[in-house]
Amino acid sequence: MNKNTTSKQSICAVGEKLFALHGYSGVGIKLILDEVGIPKGSFYHYFASKEAFAVAVAEHYFQQRIQPIAIDPSANFKANLSTLLNGYHQLIDELFSGHQPRGCVIGNLMVEVSPQSPLLHQTLTHLYDKWLGLLSTLIQQGQQQGHIRADLSASILASVFWSNWQGTMLRSQIKADKIATKRALVQCMQMMTR
Questions:
Q1: Beta carbons within 10 angstroms of residue 93's beta carbon
Q2: CA quadruple 164, 66, 125, 176: dihedral, nearest 10
């Protein structure tokens, strides 16, 4: 990247790739600087620390990858479900591009980060809650329209879907099977339908 045109968002996009491939502990400031092609001062102009950088990367990932596939209140459940699954499938395609599959950045960070990194821990907790809220809203709509089982709450079913997503992404880093990864999400949703 050209350091004259490097923006905070473009640095976060590189960080997303690096954290997805190597995890939090496997990414040092030098690797970030080398990958982006900027001096240390430019990095610290945007981010006070590696933890602050990871916070920005997690928020960037959520805003760019997860938020766009949220429910459209004016659409019906089937349209929203199709948008959701297509969005996750596109994300899987992106995560499988390259030499090795990358994991979900938020999931990867959650595995490694402890309460000793309070800013990142708090951000990941907030993004997790927000993500579950988006899924719960979709599932509630499906329950109200008679498409999703109602014997379990929307929040429980949202947790099941999210856990399936994260487990599937972890498994894909061991067994790189993009079709099986996509199928797992569809099957999880099918188990919820009536």
A1: 12
A2: 40
- What is the sign of the dihedral through the CA atoms of 124, 129, 130 and 135? positive
CA distance 69 to 36: 28
CA distance 54 to 109: 8
pTM score of the predicted model? 0.89
Q: How far, in whole angstroms, is CA 128 from its chain's centroid?
A: 9
- C-beta of residue 43 within 8 angstroms of C-beta of residue 68: no
pLDDT, tens digit only, all 194 positions of the chain: 444 446 899 899 999 999 988 889 999 999 999 999 999 998 999 999 999 999 999 999 999 999 988 888 899 999 999 999 999 999 999 989 877 788 899 998 999 888 888 999 999 999 999 999 999 999 999 999 999 999 999 999 999 999 999 999 988 888 888 999 999 999 999 999 87
> For 4-18, b where at least 16 C-beta lie within 10 A, e where not — what string?
eebeeeebbbbbbbb
Q: What is the CA radius of gyration of the chain?
A: 18
